[in-house]
């Protein structure tokens, strides 16, 4: 299932999680159908396909490790990044060159990523318990999280003390421990507040538990201030910026190395050269025919030569369209791969195409999904402009890496994040605010109302795999005004 959310006022973001296969590769097709109102003029006459393709930006990464705080803190769990980090620290205390710096930093980042993922899962569980009124289970979950979070912070700080005794203040390894400590503290402070707010409905029943969460949050804030961490500042802008820096740093261990192929450009150049050659050959043969049949510089000679050069340009364009129709996979707009930073082997291969489609040429099911049942006169209105973005994905197995699953058990899933920039859809929109007058229903006078002009951009997403008998659709309405995205509504398929 592909998740869609608002990333910013002008960006949509989709997230697709795919398991990394162990022995056999598999494929997915992802289709995005963007239905744009005709009055916005986002069509093939005003925008090139290449320009709109740049509005779809993607990056691939490993999914965050799914390790509970209990598993993370379990000293007997040899797969826990915290257990590995303890072993690395013991080795470094004995010999500062015993462990590669990159290995230690990777485990520090993984500890933070694991805590972030578990905190999100815990918060969602607590929200569900609040809805169901499960007070006892909720209290037990909050107490367990508080205990585990306190132990996690304490463990990281014990390791930090050991490293501080062996390394100079400007050493990269020590700085990595300091950054991880600050990131864990920020996560715990924020999550304690989030849990408190989510559970405040049961303030009377869980007063001690909720008070402990607030105290823990305050202690973490004071801890960062005492240790002169940037996020301990009283300036909210500084704190927010620091949070973003730490998040990017910790998640950098998950990002896969992108490699864009030059093949589409080369194929495009070859086909363009072929089309130009055929067109030039026609023009040359036409000129030869004119030379041998008519007197040079005569009216007939000039007419034939001009006709030849007119058709030369048309032949180039016709051949370009022909190649694009007959060789769609070779004419992919972009071919890329996501490589493992450990093995430099492919995790995922990707082929992208973007085309403008006519509404009448879409599949019957897509047209049925888009059908506006509230407007029986849609066929009398101008047709919507449809942008069709296609991504073919191939997931490559771990056996291609000469590594087995137990060599990197935490990296089981691939996450593809795609951001769609909508600024081109906003240019022709009317101003968002207007004033509407109507009769006041409670008095004999005019009532003035503020009205907001909005537009609906429909998005249909399809995830397809023939071999796996998978064909999932989802339909969203993106409500926009000139300032950007107002909201996203999921629509029923039936």
Automatic annotation (TrEMBL):
This is Uncharacterized protein.
């Amino acid at each position: 299932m592909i998740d869609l959310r608002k990333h910013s006022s002008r960006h949509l973001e989709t997230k697709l999680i795919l398991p990394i296969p162990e022995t056999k590769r598999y494929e997915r097709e992802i289709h995005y159908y963007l239905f744009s109102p005709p009055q916005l003029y986002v069509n093939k006459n005003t925008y090139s396909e290449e320009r709109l393709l740049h509005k779809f930006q993607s990056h691939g990464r490993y999914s965050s490790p799914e390790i509970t705080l209990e598993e993370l803190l379990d000293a007997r769990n040899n797969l826990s990044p915290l257990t590995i980090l303890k072993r690395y620290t013991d080795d470094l205390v004995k010999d500062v060159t015993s462990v590669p710096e990159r290995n230690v930093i990777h485990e520090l980042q993984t500890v933070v990523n694991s805590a972030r993922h578990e905190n999100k899962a815990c918060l969602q569980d607590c929200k569900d318990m609040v809805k169901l009124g499960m007070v006892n289970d909720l209290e037990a979950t909050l107490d367990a999280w508080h205990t585990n979070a306190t132990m996690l912070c304490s463990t990281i700080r014990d390791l930090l003390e050991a490293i501080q005794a062996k390394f100079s203040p400007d050493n990269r390894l020590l700085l990595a421990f300091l950054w991880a400590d600050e990131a864990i503290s920020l996560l715990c402070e924020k999550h304690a507040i989030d849990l408190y707010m989510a559970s405040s409905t049961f303030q009377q029943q869980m007063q001690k538990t909720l008070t402990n969460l607030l105290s823990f949050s305050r202690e973490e804030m004071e801890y960062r201030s005492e240790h002169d961490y940037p996020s301990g500042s009283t300036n909210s802008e500084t704190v927010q910026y620091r949070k973003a820096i730490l998040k990017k740093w910790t998640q950098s261990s998950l990002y896969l190395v992108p490699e864009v192929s030059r093949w589409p450009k080369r194929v495009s150049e070859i086909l363009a050269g072929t089309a130009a050659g055929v067109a030039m050959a026609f023009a040359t043969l036409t000129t030869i025919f004119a030379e041998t049949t008519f007197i040079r510089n005569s009216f007939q000679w000039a007419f034939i030569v001009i006709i030849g050069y007119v058709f030369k340009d048309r032949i180039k364009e016709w051949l370009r369209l022909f190649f694009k129709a007959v060789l769609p996979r070779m004419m992919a707009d972009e071919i890329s791969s996501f490589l493992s930073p450990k093995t430099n082997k492919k995790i995922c291969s990707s082929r992208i195409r973007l085309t403008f489609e006519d509404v009448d040429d879409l599949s019957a099911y897509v047209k049925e999904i888009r059908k506006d049942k509230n407007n029986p006169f849609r066929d009398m209105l101008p047709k919507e402009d449809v942008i069709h973005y296609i991504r073919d994905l191939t997931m490559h197995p771990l056996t291609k890496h000469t590594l087995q699953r137990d060599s990197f058990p935490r990296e089981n899933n691939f996450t593809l994040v795609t951001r769609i920039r909508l600024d081109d859809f906003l240019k022709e929109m009317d101003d968002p605010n207007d004033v509407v007058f109507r009769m006041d229903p409670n008095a004999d006078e005019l009532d003035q109302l503020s009205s907001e002009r909005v537009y609906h951009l429909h998005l249909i997403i399809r995830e397809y795999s023939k071999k796996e008998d998978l064909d999932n659709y989802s339909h969203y309405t993106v409500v926009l005004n000139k300032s950007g995205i107002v909201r996203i509504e999921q629509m029923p398929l039936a």
